[in-house]
Design a protein that fits this description.
The chain is of the alpha/beta class. Helices cover 40% and strands 20% of the residues. Bound molecules: zinc ion. The site of zinc ion (ZN) has 5 residues, from loops.
Length: 530
Amino acid sequence: MKKITIYDTTLRDGAQGEGINFSLSAKIRIARCLDEFGIDYIEGGFAASNPKDMAFFDEMKTVRLKHAKLAAFGSTRRARLTAAKDPGLAAILRTGAPVATIFGKSWLLHVEKVLKTTAEENLKMIADSVRFLKKHGKEVIYDAEHFFDGYLDNPEYALRTLQAAADAGADALVPCDTNGGRLTSEVARITAEVRARFPGAALGIHTHNDSDLAAANSLAAVEAGATMVQGTINGYGERTGNANLCSIIPSLALKMGAQMACGARLGNLRSVSLLVDEIADQRPPKNRPFVGESAFAHKAGMHVDAVSKVSRSFEHVDPAAVGNERRILMSELSGASNVRLKTGEMGLVFQKNSPAVKDILQKLENMEKNGYQFESTEASFKLLVQKVLKKHVPFFDLQGFSVVVQKKDGTSKATTTATIKVSVKGQTELTAGEGDGPVDALNSALRKVLRRFYPAIDSVVLEDYHVRILNPESATQATTRVLIESSDGRERWGTVGVSENIIEASWEALVDSVEYKLFLDEHRRRSSKK
Ligand SMILES: [Zn+2]
């Protein structure tokens, strides 16, 4: 088994992604989470570049990491300065981090045109800086910036930069595909050539995803001899991002037999990914490999049928291995087996040719024709099943509602009031609620009434609200589809409403959300009694 170390740079390279902004406390939380997960190195920030990064290193002096080593990032000394007088290197020492990761130039284009120095001075800058940090007792990781581009331009010079770092005592040499433009075959070949030239050195790989190849290039480098992989959680990073550790780690563990400290906690991968998204205030894309909500979601009827018989017929790994789960999506593409699997989750067992299954499919098809969508709205689907089976008992009946949006003059804020009349358990109630908009106002009025009869309603939070106009070619009669995501702290669920009127569509999704909560609680009560 090949031993691989994982080097995370979410807090430094990842923080350079558009829309990513970590507060100090967010950085600490992420560092703890990565340590818990078994990441070997956590790069905390660019020592010299900003005070927030320095504050992080100061704070980390009081945090005890169980496994991970903290790394401070910086560049080689400047041209025409000694290492001892270089402010960047001094900042690295001030962080107190046991590991120093410094980057230097491998590509003559950058040496001559960007740094405006000479090829020889660049080699001295690398050697001096590594030697200086080693003299101060640091573990030194040398990141060779633009290595692959530089190697293709002038292989001998690129190798001399690595030689300079190695001779000065660097503990690891890490060729970087900084611009993210290299093909997998190039990374594989060049890494093998570097491996042959430095047989005893610890070699790493650092890639960016500009060609959508960062994960592939990292894995190819490992096959060619690299033993350290640098990347970020969820692939955060500048432009199109860094190599995504959430894709690389499971491939290394499950397909390449690599041994990693985090391998033992692979089942936590999805929760690490989600937690970092939450801290970074990012919406997780559903189609993320391994950890995304759709990573193991099956829709086509034939696939669902096959996967229910032999899971590996349509799943490349076991979803549970990475902390994910299989999902069966309901749509007109799905056949009777999807419906039977889905209703099975509700405790309803139907025979293969059951007329009830046909009725449910029929209803599903009709509703989808009218603009409904049940893939992400399982709650509405489950209520629909109850209705088709005539098992649905409404928790309340709407007698009517009105919504008034008022703006008193051009500068004041618009206010919204909703009045609803509903009957609950034989009593008719009339209540008004206020909100930021019509849906918010309706939601608050409905809760006010229901809270008295069903106090559990208070735990429901509307997490998300999407509106989609469905047939814009006939703009006057466009249908509106509203998707609402709700949560009660234990579970999340999606509901759908469709109408030509946005308020009516919203109301429908809102009612499903509330009814599903009550349905769910009943279901929970019944299963706890069993
Ligand atoms: Zn980078």
